[in-house]
Design goal:
Shape: globular
CATH topology: TIM Barrel
Number of strands: 12
Number of helices: 16
Order of helices and strands: HHEEEHHHEHEEHEHHHEHEHEHEHHEH
Radius of gyration: 21 Å
Distance between the termini: 42 Å
Number of domains: 1
Strand order of the largest sheet: 3-12-11-10
Amino acid sequence: MATLSDLLKTYIRICDSEKNVENVGYFQQTRSILMEKFRGVPKPLTETGGKIPFVYWLSLDLWRDLLQLDIERYYTDPLYYLEHWLRMRIFYVEHFEDCNCCEKFIPIWLGEGFEAALFGCQRVYSSAHEPAIDRSYKVLETPENLTRLKLPEFSDHPQMDLARKFYREIKNVVDEYGIEVGFVDWHYGPTALAIFLRGFENLMLDFPLHPGFVADLMAFIVEARMRWSRERDAFLGTPRPTGGLMYNDDVCTPNISPNIYTQQILPYEQQLHDFYGSLAYYHNCGPIDPFLPDIKTFPRIELLHSGPFSDYRTVGEHFHATSPIELHLRPEQDLISCSEEDFTQRLRRIKADYADLGVNAYYVRITTYSHPNLTTAQNVAKLQRWCALSKQILLQP
């Protein structure tokens, strides 16, 4: 079995390869989004010769089966994380041909719920599944509990101890190879954190029934995040080079009405935008179509996620001239249960629609997940075929 040194040397060769240099050339930014998979800010098509990059990936449950991955250990053991992060990238490059970028940079991602745990939510680990928050326990069982909630500590919290351990141990190994390490970042928006703390049903009722409490809770979360970000900068000894992340899958219709978004959510997202100077990434799987006019009021979004449940055309109409778009295909309809003919037509339609709308900077994304209708081998084979079809359509001007 390859040693960690072997894996690092192989990974560096991939980073320096002609194909990888070509892939990096499709993007104007490649290190601003510290999350579980590569996300880049695409260059305008006028700079790529009309070629549209596409970035596909496998979910962690598929990597679990392919690499015999212990997911709990992956998120709690720094060198195990490093080894299998490298194995995933190397395997992917060897078996798939898309526009994923490999760089001499390793982002630390500690799984969903990291930020919620800073406030006292309870994380549940499993060797077979992604970490999750125990939803049966609510930090804010009643609105009155908010007065007893303390701002999370950057320097004294088990989750932060784990984050610093990952950063230091991985950095200690990769420094001599000229590889940088990206310290874990805060990606949840204020509403996502409020849902973790209060519970989904409770918060949905709080919006119309207890607006004052919601305002206090959102302000508390924003203040906690800004303080954490300042302390992160101090720990790293350098100011943040890019904007903040805004990840809010639950801020969508029919969960949230447009009026609630405008009046009770948007002001706090705007406050974070202003604090960071921009949003490096606005992520929402949607549907968010009714919120797009409000989202467009942010002065600068460096990458906008057009989720699988939003209308990509409506997103393009609003943002064709302002923000590069990450167009996320539908995992079920566009991959798992999709025929080659339908997938080909789907890509051609997207390409034509965005050309008509004048969208000049976007890339196409899909992640395939474990599914009862496909074995892991079938899932891999289908994604390989989807890469080949995408190359024929999207990388042809």
